[in-house]
C-alpha cells in the first residue's frame, strides 16, 4: 500500500517524475490499485530510485480519474527529470486508524469557581481507512463527547483523563491525555452519599481539611451551595466522617452564609492553626433530599370558658431539612379545611378528637404527618 510508482507503457515498466506530483495524483494511483485513498504523495525517490525510462512527467489529476493514464501528463522522453525525482504514494487501504493525542494540559479554573470551562481538543488522525467515515469521540469522566464540545472540568476530580476513540467501518484506535485544573476547590469525602462528608479544600496545589474551630451552619451552608447541594442542615465536628490526611488548610472559618466560596470567608489559612485531624469539619447538605417533617405531639386542651369549643393557634411541624429546590410550603388540613401554621381556629368538643394533617412540599418533594387535638370541658 505504499512505494515508488511504476507504470507499464509501450511494453516496459518505468517511473513517474515528481514534478507537480500531489495528493490528488497519488489518490488516483491508490484507487486504481484498490487501496482506497492516498494520505501522502512522497517526492524525491523516497522509496529508492527506479531504473529504465521515466514514463510520465507533470501529472495533473483531479483525483476522480479511473487510471493515471486518464490524467493530463507529458508522456515518454520529453522531460528533464532523473530517477532521484521518482514519485511515490502512501495509501490508506484498510490500515489501522492512527490517532495522536494532544499533549497533557494544565489550566486554571474559571474566576471564583471550582471548575474550568474547556472546549475539548481533537487528536491528530495521521491516516485512516477509506472504508467508512472516520468517527472521533472523547470519553470524559464516563460521559461521551465530541471534539469542540464545551465541558466543565472540576478541580475536585482533577486531573481529568480524556480518552479519544477513533473508528471507521473496520478499525479503531484510542489514545489518552490529561487535563489538570488548578485553583481553589471543595469536595466532600466519607459520607453515605455525595451530599455529605468531611470537607476538603484544594489550595496551593494540594487537598487538605478544615478545622472545626468556630465551624457552624453558616460555614457549612457556603460549602453546600458552592457544590450545588442547596442548604446545609448540619455542620458536624470532630471528624464525624473520619479523619483526613495531609495539611489542615483552613481554621477558624467565619462565613456569613452568603459567600460564593468558602475562600471568601474570614479564616486562618495554612499552617497557623492549633488543630489535628480529630477536629476535621464536615457538612450535611439538603440537596434534593425528600422533605422530612416531624409533627407536634398529640394535645389535650380545655374548651373556652362556658363554650363547647376551644380556640387554637395551629402549631407547626419540625422540619429538620428539606430540598433547596423551591420554597417550602406547609399546610394543615383541619376537618376538611386547609389552614396555615398559626391560623386561629375553633375546634368543637363534639367532633373531638380532631386530626390535623400536616403537608410540607417544595418544588420536587412532599411529606405528611398527623397529630390529634382533643378538647375537654
TrEMBL record:
Domain SRCR: 1-92, 186-286
Pfam families: SRCR
A single Gene Ontology CC term: membrane
Assigned keywords, A-Z: Disulfide bond, Glycoprotein, Receptor, Repeat, Signal
Keyword Zinc-finger: no
Residue ranges constituting the HYR domain according to the UniProt record: 91-183
S-S bridge residues: 17-81, 30-91, 61-71, 211-275, 224-285, 255-265
Listed name of the protein: Deleted in malignant brain tumors 1 protein-like
Amino acid at each position: 500500500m505504499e512505494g515508488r510508482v511504476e507504470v507499464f507503457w509501450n511494453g516496459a515498466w518505468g517511473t513517474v517524475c515528481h514534478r507537480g506530483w500531489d495528493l490528488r495524483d497519488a489518490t488516483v494511483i491508490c484507487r486504481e490499485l484498490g487501496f482506497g485513498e492516498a494520505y501522502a504523495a512522497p517526492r524525491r525517490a523516497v522509496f529508492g530510485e527506479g531504473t529504465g525510462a521515466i514514463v510520465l512527467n507533470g501529472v495533473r489529476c483531479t483525483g476522480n480519474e479511473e487510471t493515471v493514464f486518464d490524467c493530463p501528463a507529458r508522456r515518454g522522453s520529453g522531460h528533464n527529470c532523473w530517477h532521484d525525482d521518482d514519485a511515490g504514494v502512501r495509501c490508506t487501504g484498510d490500515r489501522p486508524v492512527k490517532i495522536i493525542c494532544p499533549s497533557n494540559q494544565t489550566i486554571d479554573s474559571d474566576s471564583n469557581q471550582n471548575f474550568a470551562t474547556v472546549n475539548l481538543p481533537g487528536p491528530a488522525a495521521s491516516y485512516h481507512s477509506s472504508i467508512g467515515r472516520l468517527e472521533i469521540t472523547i470519553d470524559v469522566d464516563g460521559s461521551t463527547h465530541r471534539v469542540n464540545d464545551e465541558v466543565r472540568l472540576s478541580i475536585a476530580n482533577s486531573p481529568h483523563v480524556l480518552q479519544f476513540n477513533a473508528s471507521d467501518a473496520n478499525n479503531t484506535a484510542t489514545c489518552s491525555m490529561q487535563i489538570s485544573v488548578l485553583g481553589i476547590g471543595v469536595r466532600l469525602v466519607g459520607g453515605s452519599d455525595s451530599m455529605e462528608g468531611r470537607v476538603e479544600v484544594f489550595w496551593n496545589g494540594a487537598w487538605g481539611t478544615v478545622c472545626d474551630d468556630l465551624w457552624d451552619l453558616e460555614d457549612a451552608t457556603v460549602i453546600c451551595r458552592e457544590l450545588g447541594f442547596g442548604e446545609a442542615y448540619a455542620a458536624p465536628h470532630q471528624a464525624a466522617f473520619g479523619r483526613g490526611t495531609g495539611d489542615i488548610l483552613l481554621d477558624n472559618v467565619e462565613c456569613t452564609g452568603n459567600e460564593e466560596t468558602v475562600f471568601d470567608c474570614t479564616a486562618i489559612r495554612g499552617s497557623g492553626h492549633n488543630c489535628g485531624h480529630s477536629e476535621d469539619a464536615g457538612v450535611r447538605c439538603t440537596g434534593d433530599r425528600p422533605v422530612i417533617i416531624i409533627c407536634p405531639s398529640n394535645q389535650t386542651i380545655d374548651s373556652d370558658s362556658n363554650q363547647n369549643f376551644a380556640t387554637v393557634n395551629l402549631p407547626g411541624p419540625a422540619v429538620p431539612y428539606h430540598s433547596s429546590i423551591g420554597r417550602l410550603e406547609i399546610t394543615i388540613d383541619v376537618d376538611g379545611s386547609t389552614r396555615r401554621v398559626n391560623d386561629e381556629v375553633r375546634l368543637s368538643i363534639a367532633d373531638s378528637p380532631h386530626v390535623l394533617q400536616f403537608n410540607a412540599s417544595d418544588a420536587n418533594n412532599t411529606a405528611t404527618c398527623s397529630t390529634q387535638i382533643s378538647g375537654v370541658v
